[in-house]
Amino acid sequence: MTRAHGVPEVTDADFTAEVLHERDRPVLVEFTADWCGPCRQLAPVLSAVAAEEADRLKVVQIDVDRNPATAARYGVLAAPTLLVFRSGEPVRQMVGARAKRKLLQELEEHLEQRPVTTA
Fold first, then answer.
1. Is the pTM of this model over 0.90?
2. How do residues 36-50 score in pLDDT, each as one tens digit?
3. At CA 70, angle to CA 4 and CA 30, rounded to 5?
4. Three-state DSSP state, 90
5. What is the three-class DSSP state of 60?
6. Contact, 57 vs 107, CB < 8 A?
7. N or C: which end of the chain has fewer CB within 10 A?
8. Using one digit for the tens of pLDDT, what is the confidence trace for 48-72?
9. Which run of H or E residues covers position 61?
10. One of 1, 27, 39, 107 is an active-site residue; which one?
11. How many Cα atoms are found within 13 Å in the side-chain-facing hemisphere of 33?
């Protein structure tokens, strides 16, 4: 699997616990595969987003070849597919690699708002 640094891998076995039971923040799941060129392009983007938005977003990856049940359950037919889950429900789907700025724009409405601090 094309690993994004700092992004944990989930499996069919722990998907429910790691994604569906997450209540503190939305979860971005990348459905990926070793053979997927666009997934390799997306890896550094996911690493950066996971690090920068850790307080507002949980980011995980799942290999579609080793975890076909979860991929089938959510109708994933292409890699990379990105699904955003909030309180256990999928709320957004995106297919294909994208730049960090575009991904953050697409995610913004699903992220927790940061508290406003006054200086």
1. yes
2. 999 999 999 999 999
3. 25
4. strand
5. strand
6. yes
7. C
8. 999 999 999 999 999 999 999 999 9
9. strand 58-63
10. 39
11. 16
SS3 of 69, please? helix
Residue with tokens 């700092």: 6
Token pair, residue 67, equals: 């975890």
Residue 36 annotated in active site? yes
8 Å CB contact between 15 and 72: no
Specify whether the CB–CB gap between 81 and 93 falls below 8 A.
yes
Task: With beta carbons less than 8 A apart as the criterion, state whether 62 and 28 touch.
Answer: no
| Dist CA 30 CA 79 (whole Å) | 8
Q: Which of 113, 25, 97, 18 is nearest to 61 (CA)?
A: 18
Active-site residue identified among 36, 43, 60, 62: 36
